[in-house]
Amino acid sequence: MASAIADALRGLLGEAKVDADPAALAARRHDYWVLSAIRDHVGEPGPSPACAVRPASVADVQATLRWANETGTPVIPFGLGSGVVGGVIASPEAILLDLGAMTAVRSIDPVNLLASFDAGCNGLEAEKAVAAQGLTIGHWPQSVAVSSVGGWVATRASGQFSSAYGNIEDVVHAIEAVLPDGEAVTLGKGPRASAGPDLRQLMLGSEGTLGVITGVTFSLRRAAQARAVSAFETPDMRTGFDFQREVIQGGWRPPVVRQYDERESRRLDARATACLILMVHEGPAALVAAETAAVADLAARMGVARAPADIVEHWLDHRNTVPSWDVFLQRGIVLDTVEVSADWSRIAPIYDDAVASLREIPGCLAGSAHSSHVYRSGLNLYFTFAVQTSDPAAMEGIYLDAWRRIMEATDRHGGSLSHHHGIGRVRRPYLERELGPGGVALLRRVKQALDPRGIMNPGVLIPDA
How many C-beta atoms lie closer than 10 Å to residue 377's C-beta? Predict the structure, then answer.
């Protein structure tokens, strides 16, 4: 079957755009999800796709989807493979649609502050292209150097500077996509429109289940004129939450506001004695000066201690450096990071409940959290767990149990089960808790309307009926 799919697509697109090399396919079997790495580690790797199609144009994507829709062949959109929730898992009867050859910078418009890119364009390369003209996208996920701009949209991503610049939905101006039947659409036109529901939202967070994103236009910003950093230390997480809330609700918008619990604070800097809060302030020089002074004054009035500012500089320099999962799995350590969000009244109970539950797992080395995105009405929490076992066969069960504990603690206190990594496969069993039965039913109806043959990324996002 796999060879027949590859042969048919070669006849449609040409030999060079269809890859059936076993090694190349094996490298694209999954994304960066820890559970896939665990399965590889214990000798249970999943299958490869039937073939990988590398389109060079929107027309190639259209032709591929028309053929797949007519034949009922599953299609798995693939950006740069940096997802961490199981959004890409190959199957031997599926086409892996690798957008890695669609990397063009289509246009940069410094007057209207707009820039358009092919969806497969590397995020850091896109940022460099606009930075050369004194501009910025302002979207800085930890994966910026290994993720695609289309992937940002498909997973409804957030960046490290989001507290001032917004999340991906706040910087997207327009989205070009190909629907499952091969029709191309462009969603978004002016800086704002009142023209019915915002159809861009269909693609934002769709995780490849409703179509293939082929191009993205961003609304840019001018590069910041000035930058300053601040660091503080609070005796506990609740005090830090209160301090963050007063900063943001007081009207100040530092692009970066991060708070670490005691364990993570000590890991970040050995001088820490309690909970660190890091801030980056940037923008017009006068605004930066006013904001840093106002935040310092608020800290003094609330009794929040200053911490060495070089901690922030160190974080800026090393924030995207992460070891591979294999380094830990080889030592029998199962770990992951899990982000959730909640309003101010719920976030502290979620932190207490989830951390306490994680630490009940036999072999737990770490159950901790930090916040990294703050809003007027609440903030996110980024949990980390690490559990050691001498039994490789137990790794998958430990992993899923840790995730369950965080999801259930968040749900118990009324939080949202995902802040920016999406649903994929790991959160899929919990989606009804997030959307409710009616919300999941509505999502299924949207899926049925756009993809009646169910070819787009089966098994992701939407629970089975």
Answer: 13
Q: Cα angle at 136 between 130 and 142, to 5 degrees?
A: 110
Contacts of 337 (CB under 8 A, 6+ apart): 84, 382, 383, 384
Q: Can you give the residue range of the structural domain that contains 349?
A: 325-421
Q: Which tokens hold the place of 177? A: 């996509």
* pLDDT tens per residue across span 30-60: 999 999 999 999 999 999 999 999 999 999 9
Tell me which residue has tokens 């490789």.
392
Note whether 338 and 295 are same-domain residues.
no
Reference 51, options 11, 9, 88; nearest CA is 9
Query: What does the block give as tokens for 247?
Result: 């900063």
Counting beta carbons within 10 angstroms of the beta carbon of residue 72, is it exposed (0 to 12), middle (13 to 18) or buried (19 or more)? Answer: exposed
Nearest to 102 by CA among 124, 84, 74, 80: 80
Element (H, E) at 348: helix 344-358
Q: How many domains does the chain have?
A: 5
Ramachandran quadrant class, 188 (left: phi over 0; alpha: psi -120 to 50; beta: rest): left
Residue 384 CA to residue 369 CA, distance in Å, equals 6
Q: Which residues of 305-335 are buried (b: 16+ CB within 10 A; e: fewer)?
A: eebeeebbeebeeeeeeeeebeebbeebbbb
* Together in a domain, 58 and 70: yes
54: helix, strand or coil:
coil
Helix (H, G, I), strand (E, B) or coil at 449: helix
pLDDT in tens, 333-368: 999 999 999 999 999 999 999 999 999 999 999 999
Nearest one of 355, 354, 384, 364 to 372, comparing CA atoms: 384
2 pLDDT more than 80: no
CA distances from 373 to 229, 288, 370 (A): 16, 19, 10
Tell me how crowded residue 4 is: count the other CB atoms within 10 A of its CB.
10
331 and 404 fall within a common domain: yes
Answer yes or no: do 133 and 85 share one domain.
no
Provide the pLDDT confidence category of residue 231 given band limits of 50, 70 and 90: very high
Angle subtended by helix axes 395-412 and 344-358, to nearest 10: 150
Contact indicator for 83, 422 with CB cutoff of 8 Å: yes
Alpha carbon 171 to its chain's center: 15
d(CA 312, CA 268): 10
**What strand order describes the sheet that includes 18-19?**
18-19, 51-53, 95-98, 75-78
What size, in residues, is the chain? Answer: 465
Digit-coded pLDDT (tens) for 90-144: 999 999 999 999 999 999 999 999 999 999 999 999 999 999 999 999 999 999 9
